Amino acid sequence: MSEAVRVLVGRADLARRVRELGRAITEDYAGRQPVLLSVLKGGVWFLADLVRAIDLPLEVHFLAISRYGDAEESQGRVQILLDVDVDIAGRDVLLVEDIVDTGLTCRYLLSVLAARDPASLEVCTLLDKAARRIVPLVPRYVGFQCPDRFVIGYGLDDRERYRNLPDLLQVEDLASLRAAAEPLEAPPARA
Ligand code: PRP
Fold this sequence. Notes:
9 strands, 191 residues
């Protein structure tokens, strides 16, 4: 796998930046009790570290969505499979994402959530792949700007693998990454 990927953001830099974001959110939301919403699955790793860097009483809730095709085909229309089980009217809501790419998913979710009359509604994303944006969307909090490359690790996957890697890795050669991930072929059976 080593030649197929390179480290984009290592675990120490991730930890440092997450602490900075946590401090900024703690200051900005002082005196309030924000509701952090995370979209399964990729954002969960970031969220888990982020909430431990925020020194405020807060709530965490999850959304699960399914897309009709990929984000561009679906124009961001998603089916909500698991909805937030709390009334967010009058609450300070922070949508936490691992990555904002085209922006279509976030835009759709923000429109659904805004219709529920939160007191405030902002986005915090670990990675901002602004070069890929289709719809205008400027997250309030951004961990790192992301090059227009395929990234895995720290929650981000390729076909559900690699979410558990502690670093963010940039994929240089997807074919060899996938080839390396194939299980070894069983030796031919002996006659
Ligand atoms: C990622 C990410 C966002 C979405 C952003 O989810 O978590 O929800 O893509 O893309 P967009 O800006 O182009 O709409 P993904 O589809 O990889 O699912 P996962 O979180 O389950 O890995």
